[in-house]
């Protein structure tokens, strides 16, 4: 069985009128294959399908996508491929309880003219602030 949750995220800097990041995607759980996936696109022209193996009882989930992979991969438009290519994406989610979870993301970018990859990282803990209905 395949389970899916569709999501949409828009992020604004504090005090700003215009968002600086948007994405739409799906969280997927393939129960038979024991695969957890996060698939999303961003309007700049990047598509990511990250996945990993997990047991139903796991509280830590790790998903990875790499450029060139035929299964869990990253695609970019031509401009980004030449100037700021996403070469890898890694996400680890830790479920603490029914009311909170944390995540750590590491996106590796190959910036034109730079020999080292750039690590674009993000981490946070999210907590439920209202009761589930």
Key traits:
9-stranded mixed beta sheet; Lipocalin; single chain; mainly beta; 133 residues; 63% strand; globular
Helix content: under 10%
The main β sheet shows up as: 9 strands, mixed
- Tally of strands: 9
Residue ranges: pLDDT <50 for 5 or more in a row?
A: none
Number of domains: 1
- What's the CATH topology name? Lipocalin
Radius of gyration: 16 Å
Describe the protein's architecture and organization:
- With 133 residues, the protein is mainly beta.
- It has a single domain (2-127), classed as Lipocalin (Beta Barrel).
- It contains one helix and nine strands.
- The chain has one helix at residues 78-83, and strands at residues 2-11, 21-30, 35-42, 46-53, 60-67, 73-76, 84-97, 100-111, 118-127.
- Strands 1-2-3-4-6-5-7-8-9 form a nine-stranded mixed beta sheet.
- The protein is globular, with a radius of gyration of 16 Å.
- 14% of the residues are buried.
């Amino acid at each position: 069985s395949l389970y899916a949750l569709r999501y949409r995220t828009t992020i604004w800097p504090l005090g700003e009128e215009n968002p600086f990041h948007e994405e739409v995607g799906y969280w997927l759980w393939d129960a038979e294959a024991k695969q957890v996936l996060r698939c999303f696109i961003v309007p700049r022209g990047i598509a990511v399908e990250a996945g990993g193996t997990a047991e139903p009882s796991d509280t830590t989930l790790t998903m990875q996508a790499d450029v060139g992979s035929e299964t869990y991969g990253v695609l970019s438009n031509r401009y980004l491929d030449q100037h700021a290519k996403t070469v890898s994406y890694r996400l680890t989610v830790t479920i603490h309880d029914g009311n909170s979870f944390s995540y750590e993301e590491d996106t590796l970018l190959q910036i034109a003219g730079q020999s080292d990859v750039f690590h674009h990282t993000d981490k946070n803990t999210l907590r439920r602030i209202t009761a589930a209905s």
